[in-house]
Design brief:
- This protein starts with a strand and ends with a helix.
- The chain has five helices and six strands.
- The longest helix has 17 residues.
- It has a single domain, classed as Response regulator (Rossmann fold, 3-Layer(aba) Sandwich).
- By secondary structure, it is of the alpha/beta class.
- It is globular, with a radius of gyration of 14 Å.
- Helix 3 links the parallel strand 3 and strand 4.
- It has a six-stranded mixed sheet, sandwiched between helices.
């Protein structure tokens, strides 16, 4: 069985560690984390994820919107699905926006791991069907 490759890009190391541990414990996922936004594109190219979980708000001049734009402008990686993670919106606001922001699906933080796994699976299934 091929593990689904998930890349988590978020400046919060404790958060990415928790997501990595929670997903890899299930035995279906290989997870890499990147906590430095300026290294995101290089990590995507080397890891070749099936899905990217991307924080919107990060320090250092490169936020999630900018990383998403760079991904979509890059022929090699443009088709990798992105799911934004954000603490800027509540679960209620997420529901009101039908879980889409800037054309991308998103999940409100804090996220429950079961909800995250469900979202990952739905997104990857949708990509296979497309």
């Amino acid at each position: 069985m091929r593990h689904k490759r998930i890349l988590v890009i978020d400046d919060e190391k404790d958060f990415t560690k928790m997501i990595k541990t929670s997903l890899e414990t299930r035995g279906e996922y290989k997870v890499r984390t990147q906590n430095i936004p300026s290294r995101a594109i290089d990590t995507i190219r080397t890891f070749k994820p099936d899905l990217i979980l991307l924080d919107i708000m990060m320090p250092g001049g490169i936020n999630g919107d900018e990383i998403a734009r760079r991904i979509k402008d890059d022929e090699e990686i443009k088709d990798i699905p992105i799911v934004f993670l954000t603490a800027m919106l509540t679960e209620k606001e997420v529901a009101e926006r039908d879980s889409i922001i800037g054309g991308y699906p998103f999940i409100a933080k804090p996220v429950k791991i079961e909800e995250l796994i469900d979202y990952i699976e739905k997104t990857l299934t949708k990509e296979k069907e497309a």
